[in-house]
Amino acid sequence: VGPMISWAQKADVLVLGNSRPFFAFRDDFVKAAEKKSELKFFSLAGPGDNFPYCREIILRNHLFPKFMILNEDNFFNPKLWPFQKEVMTSSWWHGWSSTYINYFQWLGKYYLRKGIPELTFFMANHGKERLTLCSPTNGFVFMENISGDHHPLVESSQKSTVNPLYLEMARKFIGEMKDRGSEVILTFVPDGQNTDFVREEAKELGVPFILPKLNGLETYDGKHLTPESSERYTKAFFKIFFKLPEVQKVIRERECKAMR
Questions:
Q1: Are 2 and 103 in contact (CB under 8 A)?
Q2: 48-57 burial string, b = 16+ CB within 10 Å, else e?
Q3: What is the CB-side half-sphere exposure of residue 187 using CA atoms within 13 A?
Q4: Average pLDDT, integer, range 119-142
């Protein structure tokens, strides 16, 4: 929202998808990856986000990243949630006013958390209500007071299949993004589902995929990774990400330009 879009426009890598990548990629881990590579990351992931909604954000705000990391958890389902329809069809004034009302509310919480963390938790019913804030410069989670619950995550042996309709939607989206200079990378943040279909889908679409296999991951609610597990997952993810030929090519090009 608001000025955050200017940071998204500077990003080399966009993370798209639902709430699972939102909680999987944390601000401090992403910053470490940025420092290592000189690539800029930004997260547009959020509850229920799918390709029609993300596409609209990308086109309206003139985003041209080098890479898009898509969490393929029903991402290519064309069905929109009511709030997404409202955002995409509302008037300019409604969109502008809602954006800045939400932005300033969020900004107040952000600075309260940095300056008086105890007050922020007091506002969240002494920490009994979940409070999550993301960074204004990259959209990744930098603070949360989630419960201490830990649920072991075990991947199901039941395989999912690729929906032919979704596959066609994926081809169109990936083709459009490629024409804009963006390489799509598929992934699936662990949530207990079997992820073999993502590998098959990536092969069918001709795009890279990243599926780190880690044992002992935990969630705090049965679906979203705990901070400790997200750290393990992020490190494993970026270890594969930076070895992709497409990514190495961009980094080398940047290094060559810097030496001139």
A1: yes
A2: ebbbbbbbeb
A3: 29
A4: 65
